[in-house]
Amino acid sequence: MRTFFDKLLNPAEQQKQLPLILPLLIALFSGAIFSLALAPYHYWWLAILSPALLYASLRKRSAKHAFFIGLAYGFGLWFVGAFWLYTSIHVYGDTNAVLSVLMIAVMAIVMGLFSAIQTWLYRRFFPETPLTFAPLWVLFEWAKTWVFTGFPWLFAGYAFTERYLDSYAPLFGVFGVSFVVIVMACAIVEVLNKRIFWLVPSAIFLLGAWGASQLSFVQPKAEKPLSVSLVQGNIPQDLKWLTEYQVKTLMIYAELSRSEWGRDLIVWPESSIPMFQTDIEPFLDAMKAQADKTGTSWVTGIPYWDLKASHVEQHPMYYNSIMATGDNASGMYKKQRLVPFGEYIPLSGLLSWVLPAMQNDPSMSGFSRGASDQKPLNIKNHHLGAAICYEVAYPNLTRRNAAQSDFLVTVSNDAWFTGTAGPLQHLQMVQMRAKENGRWFIRATNTGVTAFIDHNGHIVKQAPMDQEAVLRGDLPAMQGQTLYTRLSDWPILGFSMFLLILGWIYRPRTVNVSFKSRR
């Protein structure tokens, strides 16, 4: 085993001792194990080992070889790390098992192209050093938040949520944490390759994490904490949108909320009301009257049909939304980031055969995208920055909402992924968003994980998964802004670009010189 790693790490030996198939297999394996660093497994050290093996596998490889090594890594990363999609595609999407696996494999290849292009650029244009590998890694993580609408999952920084390095999050966000993780991963390879000086930046990063943990950007307001109740109805996904189950769904949530009226805020999860507001106006009026009578604000997820906009646009304008009403409460938030094949089907006429069971699901009828300049919800003279489900995976979107808010609230329906790692990884992202922005996060879900998360990203209280529950908590409003809230991702992105420019300017040119001399 020692001899094998000596060959892998020794650039002089690698080309003649290791055929391409071995780095490909190592990359595939290292990508496949990465997700074990995240929830619910929390083997955080794999978030260091995985990129370290990829970095070592790329030594002295041509750009062409690097492309395929990166593709192997990316395929392993996404096929294993996002296999929780199988439940929604096969179980709830009524797609046969073979086609479901094939669809995930195609997704893994497409997403794997991020890693493939990243490693190709690394070996084509930059010197072999952690200070070019890590910046490229960060820029490609960032690209996953917007290319093809984004799939911002499986970031290295998330493995350190509630761990030592997460103290960088209020300064530079999850990408700052990822940068530190990747530099340290590569530094291990360099140290094993007898470049001992790489212990110095690793020590500096560890010391910096301690220093960052001593900083405080936010503090509680001198006001009474907000008493909040979160209602988890545990409605099975295959029943949620059935017409005959809609009234029962409303009864379940109304009954669970009966004892909570009188508290400052009651929150129901995403689409807990499985009908458009136009279909249940009497129910909404009754709930508002109850809230006004008891001095309670009520926030709920609801599909919203904008009749006025529909008339203007000449087609239905549906929104996945959060509505605030009741005592001293107002506002509506419309979801901005929609999930392809989750809230709308691209080219649905051509792709209706892919997820046949979803074609009659009202949530799949084609939601419209909410505006980017929406105001926070108003609750008891507090501002609630809102996010719906998958939106909390987008760091900058949550940052914009947090900048003008005292609390953050997210509602979700993770019943699509019951029994998988998906809901727990989703929760981990909410924790990172709370840490980045220094705000308490109120998270209400249909089946779990319903939780209160403090401004340091720690789970203060959570409800059991996959059962009916009410979670109560008293939350302080926070004031002040973290450095990340003020400056967004620009400091870490700018620093990464700076390192890459330096790397490109000072890259080795010995190959070109040798080529010219031969000519």
From TrEMBL:
Pathway: Protein modification; lipoprotein biosynthesis (N-acyl transfer). Signal peptide: none annotated. It is a multi-pass membrane protein. This is Apolipoprotein N-acyltransferase. NCBIfam families: lnt (TIGR00546). Belongs to the CN hydrolase family. Apolipoprotein N-acyltransferase subfamily. Its EC number is 2.3.1.269. The keyword Transmembrane applies. InterPro entries: Apolipo_AcylTrfase, C-N_Hydrolase, C-N_Hydrolase_sf, LNT_N. It comes from Acinetobacter cumulans. It is found in: Cell membrane. Residues 231-477 form the CN hydrolase domain. It is an enzyme of class 2 (transferase). Keywords: Acyltransferase, Cell membrane, Membrane, Transferase, Transmembrane, Transmembrane helix. Pfam families: CN_hydrolase (PF00795), LNT_N (PF20154). The chain crosses the membrane at residues 20-37, 43-58, 65-86, 98-122, 134-156, 168-189, 196-217, 490-506. Catalyzes the phospholipid dependent N-acylation of the N-terminal cysteine of apolipoprotein, the last step in lipoprotein maturation. HAMAP family: Lnt (MF_01148).
